[in-house]
Design brief:
Length: 191
């Protein structure tokens, strides 16, 4: 009976060791799967952000075009009104100059309003694009840091790989922070 108990204990110990080994392998595998899932999610997020950015730019371009078309219509109507007023009988030269000046002022006001509206639209699109670029850079930085860390750990096992992986990940994060700072410092140029 003592032999059976010792043998059973040895079997239990071996089973427990096998269980621990299997558990470690499952944990390692699940970490790899988690990293792959995070990277896949990050890639999908970047694709989505890029699509949103493209959509925002297309809407801005559409609004700018509508402003330009509206200005063209308004300027044409203004020219018609100016010509009708100038073609009235009995106008003196001074009256014609006054009419020309009045319509030049109206034209200037219309063009200025269109420029201001277009600038507002373009600035909003610029700021949205800037936010999207920052978000995409942050996502790239995170996935790059994860890749640097896991790459070092997988190629150099043990504490040295972990330390080198942490250093590589820190370098990727530093580069990402620098890139975000550069994007953040860009300013809108109305052109």
């Amino acid at each position: 009976e003592a032999k059976m108990t010792a043998t059973a204990q040895k079997a239990e110990i071996l089973a427990y060791k096998d269980h621990l080994t299997l558990q470690e392998e499952l944990q390692a595998l699940s970490v790899e799967k988690r990293i792959a899932a995070i990277q896949s999610l990050a890639s999908s997020a970047q694709t989505l952000l890029s699509a949103i950015s493209d959509y925002n730019q297309a809407k801005a371009d559409e609004a700018v075009k509508a402003n330009e078309e509206a200005l063209t219509t308004q300027l044409s109507a203004l020219d018609v009104a100016r010509n009708e007023e100038l073609n009235k009988e009995g106008l003196t030269a001074d009256q014609k100059v006054a009419i020309e000046n009045k319509y030049k002022q109206k034209k200037y006001e219309l063009e200025l309003a269109e420029y201001n509206n277009t600038t507002k639209i373009k600035k909003k699109a610029f700021e949205q694009d800037k936010k999207m670029k920052i978000a995409m850079t942050i996502i790239s930085t995170i996935t790059g840091a994860i890749s640097a860390l896991t790459g070092m750990i997988s190629s150099i096992p043990g504490p040295v790989g972990i330390v080198l992986g942490a250093v590589a990940a820190a370098a990727v994060v530093a580069a990402g922070v620098l890139q975000v700072s550069k994007i953040n410092n860009t300013t809108f140029d109305a052109g």
